[in-house]
Amino acid sequence: MIAFLRGRILDKQPNRIVVDVQGVGYEVHVPLSTYYDAGDAGMEVSLRIHTHVREDALQLYGFLTALEQQLFERLIATSGIGPRLAVAVLSGIEPNELVAAVQRADVARLTAIPGIGRKTAERIVLELKDRLAHLVAPVGAAAPAAAPPGERLRDDLLSALLNLGYHRAIAEKAVDATLATNGAPTFERALKAALRELMR
Asked: For the residues of 51-120, what is the DSSP string, one character each?
C-alpha cells in the first residue's frame, strides 16, 4: 500500500493533484484544504496517502496533515460514508471545526456542509463522538474565532461549486453576484441561485 508521496506537482485542480514522483504521475484526490495549501504546479509537495482499494479501482487520497488523514479514515469507517463524501466533508469544514462540531453534536453546522443531510450528520455525531475525543483541544484552550455568517455562507457556496467541478474564478463570480442580489439567503436558496447564475 502507498502511505506517503513526495514529488513535484504536475497538475492541480480542485480535489485532485497529480504528483510526479521520479517520472511517474500519481493521481491523488484531496480535500480543498490540501488543494489550497499544497503549492502551485512545479512545486514540491509531500502528502500522507490513504490507498483505497475496490474491485474495479485503486484510488489514492492525499492530505498535508495527520489530522486531515485521521478524520478522513474515521469518516469512511462511518456507515454510509464513502471516500468521495469524506473528501467533501473535509472540503466544507476546517478539521478542528469538524472535531468541535462532532463533540458539540452540532448537527446544524454539519448539515451546512454541501452533500451532508440531517441523517448523515446525526450518524457522524453518533459514530464519531467518542472516536474523536483524543483529537479535541484541551479544555480552556482558545477556540478559533468563528467566521462571520456571510463569509461562512460564501465559503460553503464556493466549496460546493468547486466540488461540482466549476473553475474557481467562475464560481467566485457567480457566488458574489448571488450574494449581492439575494441579501442573506439560506444555503440551499443561495446555491440554487448561484447555479442559475452559472447557467446564464
From this structure: EEE-SS-EEEEEESSHHHHHHHHHHHTSTT--HHHHHHHHHHS-HHHHHHHHHTT-HHHHHTSTT--HHH
3-state class (DSSP) for residue 10: strand
What confidence category does residue 55 fall into, taking pLDDT thresholds of 50, 70 and 90?
confident
The domain at 4-63 falls in which architecture?
Beta Barrel (2.40)
Q: Which of 129, 133, 128 is nearest to 78 (CA)?
A: 128
Where along the chain do the CATH 1.10.150.20 domains lie?
Answer: 66-135
pLDDT per residue over 88-107, tens digit each? 999 888 888 888 889 888 99
Comparing CA positions, the residue from 167, 168, 177 lying closest to residue 200 is 177
CA distance 126 to 102: 8
| Topology of domain 149-199, CATH | Helicase, Ruva Protein; domain 3 (1.10.8)
* Pairing status of strand 24-29 against strand 58-63: parallel
At the topology level of CATH, where does 66-135 sit?
DNA polymerase; domain 1 (1.10.150)
Nearest to 135 by CA among 91, 49, 75, 79: 75
Q: Are strands 4-13 and 44-53 parallel, antiparallel or unpaired?
A: antiparallel
HSE on the CB side for 174, CA within 13 Å? 23
Q: For the chain, where do the domains classified as CATH 2.40.50.140 start and end?
A: 4-63
pTM (2 d.p.): 0.65
